[in-house]
Amino acid sequence: MNINQALKWSSQKLATSPTSSLDAEVLLSWVLNKPKEWLRVHNDEKLSWFKLFKFKKAIKKRSRDFPVAYITGHKEFFGLNFKVNRHTLVPRPESEQLVARAKQITYDNPINIIDVGTGSGCIAISLAKSLPNSIISASDISRSALKIARFNSKLHKVRVHFKHGDLLKPFANKKFNIVIANLPYLTPEQLKETSISKEPTNALLAGNDGLKLYRRLFMDITNHLEPSATILLEIDPAQVSKIKKIAQTHLGAIDIKVLKALQGLDRIFEIKI
CB 3.0-4.6 Å disulfide test: which of 72, 116, 149, 249 passes with 30? Predict the structure, then answer.
């Protein structure tokens, strides 16, 4: 079987996926250790028995709803490559706006930033790479996720102060200029979607309305804010009004913006203190 035939075969096997062709190209590129562009130029090249076996095995996993990133073991985020596994949420392009917005706010001034619920560390590490003069901290309740995050920080040769624990509790006496949180915000009903069925439940589910962790974050957040601090959250577009009420309950009169991410959806919630 050559490359062209393998891609056609795999696209048929993944026909129920809206990204079947892209998934097939990414997985074959990974198997061959070649860029996707190389596949198109060498589409008549025959695959070895071992490479074909590895590719078919990867396609079988993908057909069972395993994320491509879990199969390859890595995912690109903000132009950097990150190791991921079943203990970490797969980084999403939407979350890149949290990094981009934080960069805009800092104007390269050295400040303290925390990434609450860091997972693979992609947000914290991208910030550390982009803002070398700032102090970046990160927390996560999962030791397994933090192990991956620390690996990624070494991979990209940046310093991030990682601590294990619940939300802001590991940094009890610390204040920050920017608090970033991409916490679990799905409801049990949303969790039934097959596209996320293999990702860690504790990185996705947050009570019956998806806001359990954000409520707890706001209960403690005032103790961790420097004057004129900014809070950046990633949320479900349907949660905007509820998040506003929660924030105003704990912070009073505040400046709130809702920024659109990919597909024009309200995803980024910005609060200026």
Answer: 72
Q: Domain spans of the chain?
A: 3-64, 77-272
11 φ/ψ angles, rounded to the nearest 5 degrees: -65, -35
CATH number of 77-272: 3.40.50.150
Per-residue pLDDT tens digits for 184-240: 767 667 666 656 667 677 666 566 677 888 989 999 999 999 999 999 999 888 888
The predicted structure's pLDDT at residue 4: 96
Class of domain 3-64: mainly alpha
Could you tell me which residues come within 8 angstroms of residue 174 by beta carbon, excluding any fewer than 6 positions away? 112, 114, 137, 224
